[in-house]
Amino acid sequence: MFSVIKICTVLALAASSLSEDAPGPLVIPASQYFEGNDGPWSTFDVRVGTPEQYIRVLVSTASPQTMVPWGEDACSSAVFGTVPPDCAVSRGNLFKANDSSTWVDAGLYGINSNGVGLEANLGYDARVQFGLEHLGIGLNGPGFENQTVGGIAAPQPFYLGIFGLNGQPVNFTSLGNHSTPSFFSTLKDQKKIPSLSWSYTAGAKYRLKEVYGQLIFSGYDTSRFKENSVSFSMAEDLTRDLVVGLQSISYSGSSSATLLSSPINAYIDSTDPNIWLPEEACHAFEKAFGLTLDAKSGLYLVNDTHRNSLLDSKAEVSFRLSDGKSGGETVTIVLPYAAFDLTAEAPLVEKSSHYFPLKRANNSGQYTLGRTFLQEAYLSVDYERKVFNVSACVWNQGAKENIVAITSKDSPDSIGGSSSSGTKLSGGTLAGVIVGAVLGGLLLIAAITVLILRKRRKWIGTGFAVAARKSREDSPVFKAPVFNDVSHRGSGSTPGSSVPFSADEISGSRPRSTAEYARPASAAVSDSAAAAAGSTVELDGKDTAVRPNTEIDGHQIHQPEPLPAVAESPKGVFELPGSKVEERPPSAVGSSPPNDREGANHSPPSPITSTFDGNWTGARDSRADSLLVSPERHSYRPGDRPF
User: Fold this and answer.
1) pLDDT tens-digit readout, 530-560
2) In the chain, N or C terminus with fewer CB closer than 10 Å?
3) CA gyration radius for the chain?
4) For residue 641, how far is the Cα from the chain centroid?
5) What is the DSSP string of 17-30?
6) For 267-281, how does the pLDDT look when each residue is reduced to its tens digit (9 = 90+)?
7) Is 474 exposed, middle or buried (0-12, 13-18, 19+ CB in 10 A)?
């Protein structure tokens, strides 16, 4: 028992050590809200400040920093013409730096400068109040001090805050300035994740019973997408690294059409909701869906009547991707019209309107597949190996998560560092496997031990039992009953005669002693003693001389009168007084059935059918008045004294 306790203790310590040394994938649950003024979009929780303030944000695959709505300024008339009544809630809650004891102000900076920085290619412009602060991801996920956090006030271009997934250091003004590590790289440095990798899908409110987004660090969930063999390499431009070859875009619905005539390179970026395409491709979309660009808002607004007809048309748009603009393996991502059916709120439009998320690109640097695309695409990125994967989402209600780890290229589990991903058990899981294996081995040993002990006990009980030994050829073996008193035979009987008692002897009534039915070994006497008594010495089946008509205590009993002889039947069947009995062969073993029924007119069991086998157990109350004693087993009848 103490050994088992020691083993379990060692395994528990090993599990703790493995959990610290070998972190596994980190899954960040969605907030279970769909929100935003250009969505609806599935958001995630972040925790900012001390004490922690909970804010819901969107995921940005391009940004290295986290930005949140900045206190009262984010819902003031200075940034809104008319402040929405639910402004704070609609923006995912506000961060109040004055309520945090750990905020360290770094100053007011832009998100890009001179065409370099976050969303500079799309023309984004925003002033952000940066600082160092405590930051955590998810409701219960890891948190770190001195993380770069920015406060945004204007509702455009970011209405909701963002959580950055890019691994580049945060730069307040332009690329190359002194900055702090990103939250993503800090996770790896602090050994919270095994590799610089993540997987993300935006979720889809229109699918099933609303499917939330998913964010996993150092892993992916195979239950959320259809696997393919296409591997994409990262581009050299650090600000536009997730570039794919968009070979074609096709439309199917009431008719079919090709929407992209020439292949292009497009950047995947969840920061922006739109699909940015060449002007020619936008015209093809306008024709296929009957879209009209609203000059004031710059959006393709869709009225209710036209929207319903588009939804009923079951129209779909297919994007065929590859690592290059031509040739190679491809993967196709299909978006139903419901994926483009978004809602614009103030301040994008004066009143709520449906819109189609399509933008005309001014140059190739703006070709972008935004958040709309990631509703139907599952994106996994490995910064260590500079590769990523794009897969089509699958929609299975109630599907169980199947998380697979992406190991570091420097990990021993990564052969040559060339694998794009690999599976690895977490420390706790590995320790569980070890404990299970040890306990399984102990149970197997215990089961084998029990079986061996049972077989050994059975062997001892049977193998060591002393078997009955056969009598030697020169030993007296009784094949018939033992007659205890020769004087009870007829005058014609001799000691060597095989004739049993006569009919008169059998029918005669005489008192019998208990000793005649059962003569125990304790009653044995010597040959000389028997001779002195003037009686013939007989055997009890064990070569032991006994004294006739002698009870256990040695006292003489009443000598009965001699019985007359009875004639032997030619066939060896002996009749009893009364009617003639049915002639039947003697039993080979044992005796006749007991005659113990009330009032039955049956003869008592035959006294001459006992054999050496010793199985005769005639009924005590209805036995014949024979002087028979079994060689192997003594019979008896109730007497004055119990035995």
Assistant:
1) 444 444 444 445 544 444 554 445 454 445 5
2) N
3) 52
4) 71
5) HHHHHS---EEE-E
6) 999 999 999 999 999
7) exposed
Residue 446: exposure state from Cβ atoms within 10 A (0-12, 13-18, ≥19): exposed
CA distance 626 to 429: 83
Predicted model pTM:
0.65
Is residue 4 within a helix (H) or strand (E), and if so which, with residue range? helix 2-21
Contact 101, 183 (CB under 8 A): no
Of 158, 174, 184, the C-alpha closest to 68 is 158
Is it true that the peptide bond before 412 is cis, omega within 30 degrees of 0?
no
For tokens 């002698």, the residue is 550
Is the C-alpha dihedral spanning 481, 486, 490, 491 positive or negative?
Answer: positive
Q: How far apart (Å, rounded) are the C-alpha atoms in residues 188 and 186?
A: 5
CA 424 to CA 601: how far, in whole Å? 90
- Tell me which residue has tokens 């048309």: 313
Q: Which amino acid is at 104?
A: V
Pairing, β 358-360 against β 275-277: parallel
pLDDT digits (tens, 9 = 90+) for 387-436: 999 999 999 999 999 999 999 998 776 533 333 444 444 555 555 666 67
The 3-state DSSP class for residue 300 equals: strand
Helix axes 427-463, 2-21, angle to 10 degrees: 160
Which residues have a Cβ under 8 Å from the Cβ of 90 and sit 6 or more positions away?
35, 37, 84, 159, 345
569 vs 643: CA distance, rounded Å: 37
**Both tokens of residue 451?**
């079986």
- Residue that has been written with the tokens 């019985």 in this structure: 563
